[in-house]
């Protein structure tokens, strides 16, 4: 199969997806897209041409679109198309100055926490949420393409993120672009908590920002909550994503006197990231104020003990929904834990013969387990 050819015409990108079919994609936003966005055919129009040579002179303004034309694009080619579109969006952002923020930039691990910050903080602002869980998966050379591919492969083979192929990869790369696009004249706030996920993310973000001269402020939500927070239910907050928007706003408003990171502090964090990026563990915990790698089977005994306890409650041993097992584990934890990693370990215990399976393990909602 011939590779898809591309061509730019102002705010349109043309893709030659078949020898005589051109897909014209209209860029209507300065926000980066993913494969799921590309499926929105309202931004696309197809045209029929005579052959591949006609593509060089093709202009959709001079043609009549073919509304009834059906076509197929495989996932890999669709991902390549997304990359081409995003490269053009980034060029357009820089050309039009759309990448320059007029207010502070806030960076946080978790799209959920990013949503809370967008709601709670006043404009103007830019919020960048990493679609990541840095407590799991390899970190080896993650700041380089080779490391990103290595991590993507591990996640694809082991973690059920319940989203389209390449969606995670698109979001990750798009977030790197957003950080690259940060203007040099705005302050940057990095939000994090005392858990392996956000502490690792903090060091990764600072490494990505190492060439930027912006003032950078750290917002430790765990410590700020202890100082200013209000939690009527008195439940422990293990991650910034669990905190209410009103608390995040309160933290920001009461932290105006905080000084930006010094060059020495930034260098220290960068060195810590460089050490982390040489590791290949796939599970990390926050222990004694340090990020520590542990064996991937670290939670296996807890999973088995939890299922035993649930069997005892049943009276007779029967299958238990995987989501219920994970929910029960979470009630016992006093530290943040990634639910998708727990599901991965439950599948591993199934494959290794410790647990019996009922259903199809395509997500934690689709199967049940019991001890053999």
Give the helix/strand layout.
Layout lengths: L4 E5 L2 E7 L2 E6 L8 H4 L5 E5 L26 H22 L7 E6 L1 H10 L4 E6 L14 H14 L8 H14 L7 E5 L3 H13 L7 E5 H8 L16 H9 L9 H14 L7 E4 L2 E4 L6 H15 L5 E2 H11 L6 H13 L3 E5 L7 E5 L1
Parallel strand pairs: 5-6, 5-7, 7-8
Antiparallel strand pairs: 1-2, 2-3, 3-4, 9-10, 11-13, 12-13
Helix pairs in contact: 3-8, 6-9, 7-8, 10-11, 11-12
InterPro entries: DUF1835, DUF3658
Question: How would you describe this protein?
Answer:
This protein has 372 residues and is an alpha/beta fold. It has helices at residues 35-38, 75-96, 111-120, 145-158, 167-180, 196-208, 221-228, 245-253, 263-276, 300-314, 322-332, 339-351; strands spanning 5-9, 12-18, 21-26, 44-48, 104-109, 125-130, 188-192, 216-220, 284-287, 290-293, 320-321, 355-359, 367-371. The protein folds into three domains: 5-96, no CATH class; 104-291, Rossmann fold, CATH 3.40.50; 300-371, Arc Repressor Mutant, subunit A (Orthogonal Bundle), CATH 1.10.10. It has twelve helices and 13 strands. The strands form four sheets. A four-stranded antiparallel beta sheet has the order 1-2-3-4, covered by helices on one side. Helix 3 links the parallel strand 5 and strand 6 (125-130). Helix 3 (111-120) crosses helix 8 (245-253). The longest helix has 22 residues, at 75-96.
Tags for this entry?
372 residues; alpha/beta; Arc Repressor Mutant, subunit A; 40% helix; globular
């Amino acid at each position: 199969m011939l590779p898809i050819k591309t061509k730019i015409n102002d705010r349109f990108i043309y893709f030659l997806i078949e020898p005589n079919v051109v897909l014209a994609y209209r860029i209507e936003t300065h926000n980066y897209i993913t494969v799921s966005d590309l499926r929105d055919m309202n931004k696309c129009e197809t045209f029929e041409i005579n052959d591949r040579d006609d593509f060089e002179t093709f202009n959709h303004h001079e043609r009549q679109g073919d509304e009834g034309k059906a076509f197929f694009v495989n996932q890999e080619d669709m991902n390549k198309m997304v990359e081409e579109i995003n490269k053009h969006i980034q060029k357009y952002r820089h050309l039009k100055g759309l990448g320059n923020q007029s207010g502070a930039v806030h960076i946080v691990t978790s799209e959920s926490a990013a949503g809370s910050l967008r709601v709670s903080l006043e404009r103007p602002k830019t919020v960048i949420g990493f679609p990541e869980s840095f407590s799991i998966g390899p970190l080896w050379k993650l700041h380089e393409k080779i490391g990103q591919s290595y991590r993507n492969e591990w996640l694809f083979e082991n973690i059920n993120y319940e989203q389209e192929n390449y969606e995670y990869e698109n979001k990750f790369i798009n977030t790197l672009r957003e950080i690259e696009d940060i203007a040099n004249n705005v302050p940057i706030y990095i939000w994090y908590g005392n858990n392996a996920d956000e502490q690792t993310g903090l060091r990764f973000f600072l490494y990505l920002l190492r060439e930027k001269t912006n003032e950078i402020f750290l917002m430790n939500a765990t410590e700020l909550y202890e100082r200013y927070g209000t939690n009527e239910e008195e439940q422990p907050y293990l991650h910034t994503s669990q905190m209410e928007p009103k608390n995040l706003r309160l933290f920001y408003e009461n932290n105006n006197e905080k000084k930006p990171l010094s060059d020495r502090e930034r260098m220290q964090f960068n060195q810590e990231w460089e050490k982390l990026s040489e590791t290949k563990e796939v599970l990390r915990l926050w222990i004694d104020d340090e990020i520590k790698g542990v064996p991937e089977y670290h939670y296996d005994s807890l999973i088995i003990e939890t299922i035993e306890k649930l069997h005892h409650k049943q009276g007779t041993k029967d299958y238990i929904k995987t989501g219920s097992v994970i929910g029960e584990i979470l009630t016992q934890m006093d530290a943040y834990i990634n639910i998708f990693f727990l599901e991965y370990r439950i599948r591993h215990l199934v494959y290794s013969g410790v647990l019996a399976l009922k259903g199809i393990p395509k997500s934690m909602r689709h199967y049940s387990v019991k001890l053999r």
